[in-house]
Amino acid sequence: MKITATYTTKSPLSQIKESVSNYSSFNQIKIFDENNNLIEIPIITANSVRGALRNAGAEYLLTLLDKKVNKNIFHLLFSGGAISSSIINDVDKAIEIREKHPLVSLFGGAVSDMMMSGKINIGNLYPIVRETKNITNIKSEVSYKTLLSDMQAIKKDDAKDEKLNKKYINEEYVFDSKQQMIYETEYLTVGTKLFQEIILKENCNELEIGAFVSSLWNWLKNDATLGGKSNVGFGKFEATFDFEFFGKLYYFDNKVAIDEAIEKFLNKYTDFIKENKDKDDYFDCLNSKNQAARKK
Q1: CB of 9 closer than 8 Å to CB of 192
Q2: Which contiguous run of DSSP H or E holds residue 193?
Q3: How far, in Å, CA of 177 to CA of 258, rounded?
Q4: Considering the entire predicted model, what is its pTM?
């Protein structure tokens, strides 16, 4: 299944490529436009969105189960885990994990001593502009050259406020210029439209599709943002996610709306998780090493 997402930024958006002194530049990559000219355009990386979706899916799962897990399972659910020994394949264990844990099956990860491939491919977010028509298949009169601007901000030294320093500092205050600075951030313009493709592989079952919908829904309903600096109002957006013939999922005015066919996937996955709520051994297959390893 191919899911096509279109975003519109509702506040400045920052994704830092590098910081030099007090200046942070926006992440950009080189592409060939439809006229075969090499250009450098701003993008939001797929990895940042993938991480947000994985976290949201893990939170949805553990909240429904009302369970705490050990550190290894926590890292698997939220970060993809880490290999703790030599990698050994175990088909039976992989089948068990995919049957019991649709979220792990969807995103993949390192399960104790084996690697599991995921069933989802998440693309970068490309600006919908004249020069990216060969990527987005969307016509636009906007040029990528107009998208980036610089914003300055001042980190204030609150100790210079006499009302504050006399009341809360227990020594004589001497002005220190290091406590106040001007910093500059390159940002993506408000109103920029972005394009993304998300592919759920053909062997995805209904529970794995539902696990993806749960991740997307939970991310969006908790005031999702793109990029960094959300603590100062950056990264707000609206979006539409087109699930082909199943319908669409909408995110506008900080509210999520889902077409009926997509909601059925979510409900089926939710019911499956609830059925496992009282099973104390639900996470056991994510803890144990595979049979091949135990025979050594």
Answers
A1: yes
A2: strand 193-200
A3: 52
A4: 0.86
Amino acid identity, position 219: W
Token pair for residue 237? 């957006």
String of b and e for 136-149 (b: at least 16 CB within 10 Å)? beeebebebeebbe
Strands 181-188 and 23-26: parallel
* Planar angle of CA 97, 99, 102, nearest 5 degrees: 80
Count of C-beta atoms within a 10 Å radius of residue 295? 7
**Other CB atoms within 10 Å distance of the CB of residue 1:** 15
pLDDT digits 0-9 by tens, 225-278:
998 877 777 889 999 999 999 999 999 999 999 999 999 999 999 999 999 888
HEC per residue, 54-105? HHHHHHHHHHHHCCCCCHHHHHHHHHCCCCCCCCCCCHHHHHHHHHHCHHHH
DSSP state of 288: S
